[in-house]
UniProtKB/TrEMBL annotation:
This is 5-oxoprolinase. It comes from Phytohabitans suffuscus. GO terms for cellular component: cytosol. The lineage of its organism: Bacteria, Bacillati, Actinomycetota, Actinomycetes, Micromonosporales. One of its GO terms (biological process) is glutathione metabolic process. Pfam families: Hydantoinase_B.
Length: 549
């Protein structure tokens, strides 16, 4: 098949995924979907091979692959009919926690399945033990109602008993059911577009183009792996705790590039822990895929071929391969693990890898009763950090963490309108980036005052250990969350649910990125520009860089 036809078909498939994305954003009820873009959208061929994705949460890159294979296996491909939509959130199959609801549907043409559509998106409540986020669960059954692969639509019609089961098991049923129907609307949009593509080009042409796309993706990814330095490198890092005990949790990763394979092995990491930071294996694979794609074929639309040279290993029953009934709700483990992979690679590829970013997604949420509506609210935000400096340029920041580059933060206006939070200050943190010949990006400061009572949830797992630097650069201060600052109750916390009253305050200080190279080698004019821009203080310019600004 000629390359022009392949590219035209590819563009049509990607456009279909992007139109599904637009439909979801425009119809969702929940700001974590329509503002933050906490979702993943994928299109598959009849053999469940990924052929197109929309932009969405980076950690969902290819994660739907694991989910849809498990879901179709459980339901049985031969039992699916046109118009069916299946709901799945069983974490060990779903590659996510229980509130990331995955919906998938077959697409039929002339009585045969020609493809599948898959959308995962974050729902705000499915009856877990606590409203909002669950920070201290000890097994799956505390984390919400579980659907292992349940038809929510049959032959195009909703299954009322399943809809009612969701309604009566959610604290926010209107919000959750609104998002359910938004996902179904996006699936129906994708179904129409996929059938139009088959109608325009014909089944044989589409199949041949998809086969060529996947072959080309695999060839380019394998060529990129062959061009990498060959070897094996190991790194380790720590999570603050698991939300149940105060013990730090060891994460270890070995990356091996050899014989045309790129292997990520988490052997040596902690066994599964009591709290909800255990990662389903599908989520571990998705984390490794983000790193692999960025190293090999970062500028290409993703398909199944791009991951053919990647192997991911983690023993069942460990931190990176949760098995029933391990708690999995707080999946910040995957965020930290992404940079752990880069930390290992940086040993063998120091000219290609940046230093660590702020190291985590500093998430927060407020749960309470809205004074205007009298209804429960649970609204969250994932905050920005500084990115690590590279061998030839400064890190950017504040910016979303590497695992969420396609996501957005929740605007202050939305947070203030929908919760009891008032933001007294949102600004860049001076001196928060690690110093170096190239400086790490800076983090962010937020000062929050509460205007209604409720619960404030901080969700972060990197407040005890610093982001790592490279080649003599300096490590910045870690993330910090301070509740009740300036009072007798002042305390530093990481992942914690805190009861707040009117007038209480919280300060969030997100970390900057690690520095790269000796700070003494930084261009003095660059230091003076940093001072002028508010990234570096006059004192730090003098004491760290030896520059008078």
């Amino acid at each position: 098949m000629d390359g022009a036809t392949v590219e035209v078909v590819r563009s049509y498939l990607v456009a279909a995924a992007e139109e599904m994305r637009a439909a979801l954003i425009r119809t969702a009820f929940n700001p974590v979907i329509y503002e933050v873009h906490d979702f993943g959208i994928s299109i598959y061929d009849a053999d469940l091979r990924l052929v197109a994705e929309s932009t969405g949460l980076s950690r969902f890159l290819g994660a739907n692959d694991y989910s849809i294979r498990k879901g179709v296996e459980y339901v049985g491909a031969d039992t699916l009919r046109a118009g069916d939509v299946v709901l799945m959130n069983y974490p060990y199959w779903n590659a996510a926690h229980a509130y990331d609801a995955t919906l998938f549907a077959p697409v039929f043409l002339d009585g045969a399945a020609v493809g599948y559509l898959c959308i995962r998106a974050h729902w705000m409540d499915l009856g877990a033990k606590d409203p909002g986020y669950v920070l201290d669960s000890t097994d799956m059954h505390q984390e919400g109602v579980i659907f292992p692969g349940t038809r929510i639509f049959r032959a195009g019609e909703p299954a009322p008993e399943i809809v009612e089961l969701i309604r009566f098991n959610s604290r926010m049923p209107d919000l959750v059911l609104g998002d359910l129907h938004a996902q179904v609307a996006a699936i129906r949009t994708g179904e129409r577009r996929l059938l139009e593509i088959f109608g325009r080009f014909g089944r044989d042409t589409v199949a041949a183009a998809v086969r060529r796309m996947i072959e080309d993706g695999e060839a380019r990814a394998r060529a990129a792996v062959e061009a990498l330095p060959q070897g094996s490198w190991t790194a380790q890092d720590w999570l603050d705790d698991d939300g149940v005990t105060a013990d730090p949790i060891l994460m270890r990763c070995t990356v091996t590039v050899a014989d045309g394979r790129f292997t990520v092995d988490f052997a040596g990491s902690s066994p599964a822990v009591p709290g909800p930071v255990n990662l389903p294996f599908g989520a571990t694979i998705a984390t490794a895929r983000v790193a692999f794609k960025a190293i090999t074929t970062p500028g290409e639309q993703t398909n199944a071929g791009h991951f053919a040279a990647l192997d991911v290993r983690a023993a069942p029953g460990t931190l990176f391969h949760a098995v029933y009934p391990a708690a999995t709700f707080t999946q910040w483990t995957g965020t930290v693990a992404l940079e752990l992979i880069y930390k290992a690679l940086a040993q063998g590829m120091p000219d290609r890898l940046p230093a660590s970013s702020g190291g985590d997604v500093p998430g927060f949420m407020m749960v309470g009763t809205h004074p205007d509506t009298g209804q429960l609210f649970a609204v969250s935000n994932n905050d920005a950090v500084g990115w690590g400096a590279a061998p030839d340029h400064d890190g950017i920041g504040p910016a979303n963490h590497l695992c969420q580059t396609q996501a957005r933060n929740t605007p202050v206006e939305v947070l203030e309108a929908k919760t009891g939070m008032f933001f007294e200050r949102v600004e860049m943190r001076v001196d928060s980036g690690g110093a170096g010949r190239f400086r790490g990006g800076v983090g962010l400061r937020r000062d929050i005052r509460f205007v209604t009572p409720g619960e404030f949830l901080s969700v972060i797992k990197k407040t005890r250990s610093r982001p790592w630097a490279l080649d003599g650069g300096l490590e910045p201060e870690p993330n910090r969350v301070v509740v009740f600052p300036g009072t007798s109750r002042e305390a530093r916390v990481s992942t914690k649910r805190t009861r707040v009253q009117v007038g209480d305050r919280v300060t969030l200080l997100t970390a900057g990125g690690g520095g790269h190279g000796d700070p003494a080698g930084r261009d003095p004019e660059a230091v003076r520009e940093d001072v002028a821009e508010g990234y570096v203080s006059v004192a730090a310019a003098r004491e760290v860089y030896g520059v008078t600004a």
